[in-house]
Each structure stands twice: as structure tokens, then as C-alpha cells.
Amino acid sequence: MKYFACAFALVAYVAGAVVVPTTTFAQTSTIETVWSVDVDQRLPNDPAALSHLAILKHDNETWAVLAGRDGWVHVYNIVSGSEVRRFYLGTPVDSGALTLQNDTVVFGDIRGNLYAVDPIAGEIIWQKKLSSTFTMQPVAVGSDFLVQTADNELYRFSESGEKRWSYTGSKNTLSLYLGANPWVDNDVVYTVFNNGGAVALKAYTGDVLWRQQTISASLAARVGNINGPLATPLLVESLQLAGEQVHHALMVPIFNGELVILSAKDGSQSFSLPVSLKSTPLLVNKKMFMADSLGFLHAYNVDKGSRVWSKKISEHELIGPVLFDGALWLTDNQGNVFRVNMDGEVEANITLKGSITRLPIVTDMGLLIRTDRGLMTLVK
Fold first, then answer.
1. Is 202 within 8 Å of 209 (Cβ atoms)?
2. Rg (CA), the chain
3. How far is C-alpha 9 from the chain's CA centre?
4. Which pLDDT value is given to residue 288?
């Protein structure tokens, strides 16, 4: 295993939709709160509200759909923040949500149940029992979807709730409550479980292509904290570091650990970087941006393989960045939201009530942000 602290470059392209063009808009010196709603009606000593939303376009409106800690499914108009409807589920939810091709929305509750709901009619369509709590994000595979549970089970379901296949990963007695989402590239699913076990599976059948362990016992002892993946793995066609090049590389970020680089073809480990990430690196044209758990935002040159700059953005763990209005947007676990230009300069910031644990959702209207106090806020 090789460790590098120097800068690296991503050459060629990233498989999927992570590579995004830069669009320039007029910038303001402040961040505007368009609206904010209390989704969960959470009291001060209640458990954190961690569920996240799905976007649904219906007629000429755009809706945010999510289930809350209050046991209700909520549907909001994202232009006004007004509640279109709510309907009763009866159980708390901490998972992300996904809109399927048939306009149903799927999510899971803290008791291990998976739901598909119709936000237009305001009703539950079907319900399935999973092996454990589901707190991550469902991931689309064509008209089907994947869910990964807290006990390291990975399922593929059809939109009608039929289980196509399941895969059982190694169990872990102590892990983070949230976790990483699978990455789908054509006919292959790449995922990493909460114990650091990475696996590549055939998307249609669930057959194993390879397995690899990304968290070693020595690393866990050295860090002294619970570590594990919180960010979706990122597949790149070519990765170059200090003259060494890896083709078809899978980047696996480990919170309280390292950024591990695997071969997407056979799972062999090429090298790792000593950086703790809670979110996936972002590529914007010829630059890669990476926000770490120490509050630094790093920029790397894609062509030259060099680090362009590292800027201290926060004193706390950063999440992001995402691209909106030609700027990089980041959040931290103290409720701070930052708008940063491409040179790493903070142009504006705002503080929301509560901790932010999930990546903001980018919409045409702005960023939809959830906090653990139960709020959903649209900022721009």
C-alpha cells in the first residue's frame, strides 16, 4: 500500500454526471434565505432529524418530497415553500428519498421498512421489510433502484417492489449511523460498506466481480475514532499522481481515514491519500475540489497534477462542495453555509439553525438544505 500527501490529477473524464460545466451568474455579497420550514416539528431534546428529500416535477410545479421524524410524508412547493400536502406514515424516517421513473418516491424508516409513496395522490403504494435500518440514499438503476442498509445488506428492487437480488456484506458491530451510497456505472454497481469493505457487482444479477477491504485494523487503531465511508465512491477513467497513473480508478473516501484509490477492474489498491472526507470530490471542467474534515477546501489542477490552492473555510467538518450559480457551495456541521469562488475565497456565508449532515440539493431555484433540527431551507 502506498501513501501520498502530494497533489494528484484526474485525467480524461469521470464516469457519470459528476463532471459539470461552469456557468457564470451575477453574484451577490450575501446569501439569501428564500424560505425555511419546520418539517419535523422537532422538540429540543428529540432525536436529530436526518431525512433528506427527493425532487418531483408535476404539471408546472416542482415539489420537494420527504418523510420526517414526525411520522408524516411531506410535499412542498419549492418556489414558495408552502406545503402541498402531507399524509401519515406512522414511523420516523432518517433516510434519503428517490423519485422513480413512474413518479413514485421511495425511502426507508428507522425500523427497517422500505416504502414507495405516491406524492400526487398522497398515499402509500407498497411497503417491504428490510434486514435493518435504512438511512442512506436510494440509488436509481434504470427504472429499478438500490438500497443499502445499516447491517451491510445491498438490495435491488423494481419500482413495483419486487426484489431482484440482494448481497450480504461483512457485518460490523460498531459503525457510523449514516453511510455511503452505491455508484452505478453502466452494468456495474460499486459500493463500500460501513466496515470499509468495497465490492463491485453486476448490476443486473448481483454477481460479485471483486471485493476489497479499504479500512485496515492498524488505521482504525491509529485514528482512535470510529471511521467509515460517508461519501459515494467516485469512478474516474484515469488518475495520475506523481508520475504514476491508474486507469479506471475508483476513489473511496473514508471519514476519519483516507482517500483510497482502487482499480475499478479488479479492486486492487493502488495508493491512498491521508485526508478525511465526508463528501465526494467535485470536478468542474479542469479542476477538482475536495473539502475535508479539518475545514479546508483543496483545488487540484486536472491537467498538470498539481494542487492549485488549499484554503481554510471553516473550523468544522465540511460537506461539499456543490456547484450553483457559478460558485462552490459548502456547509459544515455547525449549520454554516458558504459560497466560495473558484479561487477559494469566501464570498458570503450564513448560519442556519442546527447541524448539516447531508449534501445540499441543487435546484433551479437554489439550494435545498436540511438541518438536524428538522428545518428545510432554500437559499441562493
1. yes
2. 20
3. 22
4. 87
* Cα separation, 343 vs 298, whole angstroms: 10
Share of the chain above pLDDT 70, in %: 87
Give SS3 for 316.
Answer: coil
- Which own/partner contact pairs does 154-158 have at CB distance under 8 Å and 24+ positions apart? 154/182, 154/189, 154/191, 154/201, 154/206, 155/130, 156/203, 156/206, 157/106, 157/114, 157/128
Tell me the DSSP string of 183-236.
Answer: EEETTEEEEE-TTSEEEEEETTT--EEEEEE-S-HHHHHHH-S--B--S--EEE
How many CA atoms lie within 13 Å of 258's alpha carbon, on the beta-carbon side? 22
Quick one: pLDDT at residue 23? 32
Instruction: Report pTM.
Output: 0.89
pLDDT above 90 coverage of the chain, percent: 73
Least confident of 220-224, 238-242, 246-250, 354-358: 220-224
What are the angstrom distances between the C-alpha of 10 and each of 13, 60, 190, 248? Answer: 8, 39, 19, 11
Buried b (16+ CB within 10 A) or exposed e, 279-291: bbbbbbeebbbbb
Q: How far apart are CA 205 and CA 374, in angstroms?
A: 38
C-alpha dihedral over 352, 41, 78, 319, to 10 degrees? 40
Q: Residue 256 region, left (φ>0) first, then alpha (ψ -120 to 50), else beta? A: left
Contacts of residue 11, Cβ cutoff 8 Å, sequence gap at least 6: 237, 238, 239, 240, 245, 302, 303
User: Residue 135 CA to chain centroid, in angstroms?
Assistant: 11
CA–CA distance, 211 with 192 (Å, rounded to integer): 10
Q: What does the alpha-carbon distance between residue 86 and residue 344 come to, in Å, rounded to a whole number?
A: 41
Q: What is the pLDDT of residue 286?
A: 78
Q: Measure CA 370 to chain center.
A: 13
- CB 127: neighbour CB atoms within 10 A? 13
